[in-house]
Write a structure and sequence with these properties.
Mean pLDDT: 80
Radius of gyration: 35 Å
Low-confidence stretches: none
Largest sheet: 6 strands, mixed
Number of strands: 10
Shape: elongated
Oligomer: single chain
Strand content: 5-15%
Helix content: 55-70%
Structural class: alpha/beta
Distance between the termini: 85 Å
Strand order of the largest sheet: 6-7-8-3-9-10
Length: 589
């Protein structure tokens, strides 16, 4: 099957608006041809001036030729403007459809996709890659048609007056064309891909750096603390400098060639006028000197348009890198879970398909139990919780909720069965009311207030004059980490799912807020199956079962007392934790 061209793909996204794109090409070509007509009138002006020299008052047609030259120049611009209007309408539709398609596909991907893909990289693809297609269709494609049409019209003009000078004018064009080809092609396409990769990496790390600025300021660190970000900047710098040096000589020769047409014309004039100068030859020579710069401008346009086509090809490739990802499978015959038990059977998971971060884990959580995942960093705690809530599907094994494989539960029903309170609470730029309502969009204000009360949020609400209608974020108020966490818990309470996953939910709470958050947790956990992930072991001391994860495996499980008696990894972690909370700074007197 023949591979579809990038232009054909873009026209597929344009729908019926593609006819506007085709119309813009016709109008652009017409504009380019009409733009050459003033040069004809310039030739007529020069002809009349030389014909009556030195009696210039006899040149009666000069005003007419001048007016006609202006009329056709203005007509060319009007038609070109119409071409751009058509191309922009179609281009906006293509960019809009591309963004919409990409966003809708992202919504169908595993919930953990954005985190693993990189938010900065994802934002750049959705916004800038679709914008690249818009620029290409709205400006560059009509200009390309015009740039191709112009040489065709010029070729006629160059040959119709004096074919000898016309052919000589084309020598520099042909020479410049071959130099241009050496700078484009497959090599240039690969370079463009490397350039976009370098930009993607820098954009992604920049987002992470900005998010970490509070930590940098708190600990007095410099940008060099973010080695990845610094490395991406250095890599981009090296690439750009090396690429610029590679193109330095070809670009110099290209510029010399396309602007060297005068050298050929002057040499020709010396040769052809060795026996004397005729008025006709002088007329044609002056005309060619005036018109040949158009050739240089046109050829340069074509060169940059070749680069722009590569940018669009790379942009579509990056959009495809998202569109080709498989969405979460939806069951043909969906089932509903029976209860809120959670069961994992021989689950194995890898982010890259090579290195397993979850290795053959099996466990059973009864309905209504509160259990905890603890262990060293990187042991797989958060990943295991993500698999339970189907942020990712495991490579092998089975995850069941209420006795039903999560793959057989509709996505909407699964989201109404499991709630997730993250370590870093995600609040949007909206009112407190709207942030809580994300858990249940059709909830009344009374229901939202009840959830806020249960989440111990009334002290937050009461300190703002607008109460639950207070805006959060830019133009509104900013909440502390613990306050944001309680708002997130209110959202989970409003959603009222039978299974709750708490991922390091007290990580950013100060001591006063932690007390309020713990009270909120107690309300949230009533009659629920609760899965907690915590490094602060005091928060999991009274859970029904503690699972200790290390290197992607469950190495221990049981109640706190049982695990402490075993003297294993948990016992060591517990002793270290007790020593840390008792540690005090002594001041010498």
């Amino acid at each position: 099957m023949k591979e579809q061209s990038n232009l054909s793909r873009l026209m597929g996204y344009a729908g019926n608006h593609r006819f506007l794109t085709y119309g813009s090409w016709i109008l652009s070509a017409l504009s380019a041809l009409i733009a050459l007509v003033p040069f004809w009138y310039i030739w007529c002006i020069i002809h009349d001036v030389l014909d009556v020299y030195p009696h210039f008052e006899k040149a009666q047609n000069l005003p007419h030729y001048g007016v006609m030259a202006v009329v056709f120049a203005v007509l060319s611009m009007v038609i070109y403007t119409a071409a751009l209007m058509c191309s922009h309408i179609s281009a906006f539709r293509v960019a809009s459809n591309l963004r919409s398609l990409t966003i809708h596909h992202i919504a169908k991907l595993p919930l953990g996709f954005a985190e693993s893909f990189g938010s900065g990289r994802l934002r750049k693809i959705v916004n800038e890659s679709s914008a690249a297609t818009e620029t290409f269709l709205a400006h560059q494609l009509p200009d390309k048609v015009g740039a191709i049409t112009t040489p065709c019209g010029l070729l006629i003009l160059l040959l119709v007056f004096d074919w000898h000078l016309g052919l000589l004018s084309l020598v520099s064009v042909i020479l410049g064309f071959f130099i241009m080809m050496s700078m484009t092609g497959k090599k240039m396409e690969q370079k463009m891909k490397e350039y976009q990769n370098a930009l993607d990496a820098m954009s992604n790390e920049a987002v992470e750096y900005v998010r970490g600025i509070p930590v940098v300021k708190t600990f007095g660190q410099t940008v060099f603390s973010f080695k990845k970000f610094k490395a991406t900047i250095d890599n981009y710098e090296k690439w750009v400098i090396a690429y610029t040096k590679d193109l330095r000589l070809p670009m110099m020769f290209y510029t010399t060639a396309i602007n060297g047409v005068f050298a050929f014309l002057i040499a020709a004039s010396l040769f052809f006028t060795r026996d004397g100068v005729t008025t006709e030859f002088l007329l044609n020579l002056l005309f060619y000197i005036i018109i040949t710069p158009v050739i240089s401008v046109t050829l340069t346009k074509i060169m940059f348009m070749s680069e722009n086509e590569m940018i669009v090809a790379d942009a579509l490739g990056r959009i495809d890198s998202i569109l080709h990802l498989n969405p979460l499978s939806e069951p043909d015959h969906p089932l509903s879970p029976h209860g809120s038990s959670v069961e994992l059977s021989h689950v194995r998971f890898s982010y890259d398909g090579e290195h397993d971060v979850i290795k053959d884990i099996s466990l059973h959580i009864q309905a209504g139990q509160t259990i905890a995942f603890v262990g060293p960093s990187g042991g797989g705690k958060s990943t295991l919780a993500n698999i339970i809530s189907r942020f990712f599907d495991p490579q092998s094994g089975c995850v069941k909720i209420g006795g039903v494989d999560v793959k057989d539960i509709k996505k909407e029903e699964l989201m109404n069965t499991v709630s997730f309170v993250f370590q870093n609470s995600h609040l949007i730029k909206a009112s407190i009311l709207d942030n809580v309502r994300l858990g249940k969009p059709d909830a009344t204000e009374e229901e939202v207030m009840d959830a806020l009360k249960s989440a111990q949020c009334m002290d937050i609400i009461e300190k703002f004059p607008q109460g639950i209608h207070t805006m959060i974020g830019t133009g509104g108020v900013y909440l502390s980490g613990g306050e944001q966490q309680r708002i997130a818990i209110a959202r989970a309470m409003l959603k009222n799912t039978p299974i709750i996953i708490l991922d390091e939910a007290t990580a950013y709470a100060d001591p006063d807020n932690e007390t309020q958050v713990q009270k909120a947790f107690n309300e949230l956990a009533k009659n629920k199956t609760v899965i907690m992930i915590a490094h602060r072991l005091s928060t999991v001391a009274n859970t029904d079962c503690i699972y200790v994860l290390a290197d992607g495996r469950i190495v221990e499980s049981g109640k706190r007392e049982e695990l402490c008696k075993k003297g294993g990894l948990f016992a060591k972690m517990w002793n270290d934790y007790q020593n840390s909370v008792q540690w005090k700074v002594k001041r010498e007197v």
